[in-house]
UniProtKB/TrEMBL annotation:
<feature type="transmembrane region" description="Helical">
    <location>
        <begin position="195"/>
        <end position="211"/>
    </location>
</feature>
<dbReference type="InterPro" id="IPR053951">
    <property type="entry name" value="K_trans_N"/>
</dbReference>
<feature type="domain" description="K+ potassium transporter integral membrane">
    <location>
        <begin position="25"/>
        <end position="422"/>
    </location>
</feature>
<feature type="transmembrane region" description="Helical">
    <location>
        <begin position="339"/>
        <end position="359"/>
    </location>
</feature>
<feature type="transmembrane region" description="Helical">
    <location>
        <begin position="268"/>
        <end position="287"/>
    </location>
</feature>
<protein>
    <recommendedName>
        <fullName>Potassium transporter</fullName>
    </recommendedName>
</protein>
<dbReference type="GO" id="GO:0016020">
    <property type="term" value="C:membrane"/>
</dbReference>
<keyword id="KW-0812">Transmembrane</keyword>
<keyword id="KW-0630">Potassium</keyword>
<keyword id="KW-0813">Transport</keyword>
<feature type="transmembrane region" description="Helical">
    <location>
        <begin position="63"/>
        <end position="83"/>
    </location>
</feature>
<feature type="transmembrane region" description="Helical">
    <location>
        <begin position="299"/>
        <end position="319"/>
    </location>
</feature>
<dbReference type="Pfam" id="PF02705">
    <property type="entry name" value="K_trans"/>
</dbReference>
<feature type="transmembrane region" description="Helical">
    <location>
        <begin position="22"/>
        <end position="43"/>
    </location>
</feature>
<keyword id="KW-0633">Potassium transport</keyword>
<keyword id="KW-0406">Ion transport</keyword>
<feature type="transmembrane region" description="Helical">
    <location>
        <begin position="152"/>
        <end position="175"/>
    </location>
</feature>
Length: 422
């Protein structure tokens, strides 16, 4: 019996190890992948109601905005990325260049001269069932291979996508940190904008100074902060729903989207730039895939990220539906007084962590660009012995820091940065 029990335990050990590694990577992903996405509630409503939408300060407008946020957050991060895009990795790597490399490996689409013929023979790049899918559309492959203009257009699209991710790496740290620090002005009313900008710059410099420690160490430091932050905003959102407007769940209906655009017209379409901020950092789920696994990223999103953020957006909308004149500082104003300062501290730390997602994504994108010959040679430091995709690029790190500080000083306001992002 003991021998049989030992054999059974030996067989179960790999599965236990697998699930332990899965949970560990899911835990680490909070500190790297989801920091940006989880801090969006700091500035989404403020940016959305910053323009002409201020003229429509009524409950139905808030319902329409919440409905737009809910369906945007459901269709893009959940449906597009978690369910579909995360399955399209290139041997564990994500991002636009990973998709391009995958296409070029199975069709003659590459215009970049460093493609090696041996790549086509690497069995590790093939998945079960891919051959059948590949043979099912030979006409599409022939069409793409025949027209050079299509190849050029595809490469241009990939380069633009990579540039946008890198641009996100500049704007996101600035807007996240500046949004969190602006919470000081809710209680310290005499604090000037210049002081907030200065504090934000100091925090940004500290963040980029930690990058050389590597993704794993940074993730272990940052993951608890994001998890605490998510439970905080989820709890506050639930409190606001119960306290201010228990019927806010009705805004999930797409009917309020139609009504929103009928009422606001062009002003509503312009406000979509603020709505899009609710999914900032979604691209990091795919771009940071080399640092983790698709299963771990999915697990973290479905179990904690999605429900906590939906509760927060609904709670903030419930507060705004009864306090429409608090749109500029809706997040901090909706926090119950006794817990304001603890939440502010966590928000500041979470904003710092939020920048980590796009910083790591930028490192991955630059590495892929360099591998395909589309980027100058840079020093790439591998920070993990077990996960090949965890890297640090010193030159890119310091360039990003300078650009983030410059954006923070130049704009000095989250609404302006949000407009640039949207």
């Amino acid at each position: 019996m003991d021998a049989e029990a030992g054999a059974a335990a030996a067989q179960q050990l790999p599965w236990r190890q697998h699930y332990r590694n899965l949970l560990l990577l899911a835990y680490q992903s909070f500190g790297v992948v989801y920091g940006d996405l989880s801090t969006s509630p700091l500035y989404v409503y403020k940016s959305t109601f910053s323009g002409r939408l201020r003229q429509y300060q009524d409950e139905q407008t808030v319902y329409g905005v919440l409905s737009l946020i809910f369906w945007t957050f459901t269709l893009v991060p959940l449906l597009k990325y978690v369910i579909i895009v995360l399955s399209a990795d290139d041997n564990g790597e994500g991002g636009p260049f990973a998709l391009y490399s995958l296409l070029c490996r199975h069709a003659k689409l590459s215009l970049i001269p460093n493609q090696q013929a041996a790549d086509e023979e690497l069995s590790t790049y093939y998945r079960d069932g891919f051959a059948a899918q590949h043979e099912s559309s030979p006409w599409l492959r022939r069409f793409l291979e025949k027209h050079k203009i299509v190849k050029t257009g595809l490469l241009v699209v990939v380069l633009c996508a990579a540039s946008m991710v890198i641009g996100d790496g500049v704007l996101t740290p600035a807007i996240s940190v500046l949004s969190s620090m602006s919470g000081l002005q809710v209680r310290a009313t005499g604090l000037q904008e210049r002081s907030v900008v200065l504090l934000s710059c100091i925090v940004l410099v500290g963040l980029f100074s930690l990058q050389h420690r590597g993704t794993q160490k940074v993730a272990f430091m940052f993951a608890p902060i994001v998890i605490i932050w998510l439970f905080c905003i989820g709890g506050i959102g639930l409190y606001n729903i119960v306290h201010w407007n228990p019927n806010i769940y009705q805004a999930i209906s797409p009917y309020y989207i139609v009504k929103f655009f009928r009422t606001t017209g062009t002003d509503g379409w312009i406000a979509l730039g603020g709505i899009l901020l609710s999914m900032t950092g979604s691209e990091a789920m795919f771009a940071d895939l080399g640092h983790f696994t698709s299963a771990s990223v999915r697990l973290a999103f479905i179990t904690i990220i999605y429900p906590c953020l939906i509760l927060q957006y609904m709670g903030q909308a419930a507060f705004l539906s009864k306090n429409m004149f608090h749109t500029r500082t809706s997040f901090y104003d909706s926090i119950p007084g006794p817990v304001f300062w603890p939440v502010f501290v966590v928000a500041t730390l979470a904003a710092v962590v939020g920048s980590q997602a796009v910083i790591s994504a930028t490192f991955s994108i630059v590495k892929q660009c360099h591998a395909l010959g589309c980027f100058p040679r840079v020093k790439i430091v591998h920070t993990s012995r077990w996960i090949h995709g965890q890297i640090y690029i010193p030159e890119i790190n310091w360039i990003l820091m300078v650009l983030c500080v410059a954006v923070t000083v130049a704009f000095g306001d989250t609404t302006l940065i949000g407009n640039a992002y949207g």
